[in-house]
């Protein structure tokens, strides 16, 4: 969307209500208004999101789903939703592996699990900040392929 320092992260932070804008008007579908009313249908994956290193890939996504989905979802519905996400994000082979911390990751895939954690909320829109930063070319291409399939 722009060169380094162009304000992409700042734009996303304003859009998500994490930072206030200094001017201008926020519009959704051409209608000015407060973006906060859309917060329940929008999810954001920051460049350096947080995962729980002591949990497995599956447990991180499931934990996020339980927190973010409506309380009307049953345990079975959540499990099925998480199963679909894990398959979609191509994490089946590592779903029961510990994520590990950023200083000592157990296995790669942290970007995918962070995306999965936000997709667990079943959002209408997903904003990602630098989804391929610090990834090798193969991993970046894989993430982009997965994201393209979402749209």
Automatic annotation (TrEMBL):
Membrane-crossing residue ranges in chain numbering: none
Membrane association type: Multi-pass membrane protein
Keywords: Membrane, Transmembrane, Transmembrane helix, Transport
SUPFAM superfamilies attached to this UniProt entry: P-loop containing nucleoside triphosphate hydrolases
GO CC annotation, single: membrane
Entry annotated with the keyword Transport: yes
Pfam families in the record: ABC_tran (PF00005)
Subcellular location: Membrane
Keyword rRNA processing recorded: no
Superkingdom as given in the UniProt entry: Eukaryota
Identification of the protein by name: ABC transporter domain-containing protein
Organism: Rhynchosporium agropyri
Organism lineage string: Eukaryota, Fungi, Dikarya, Ascomycota, Pezizomycotina
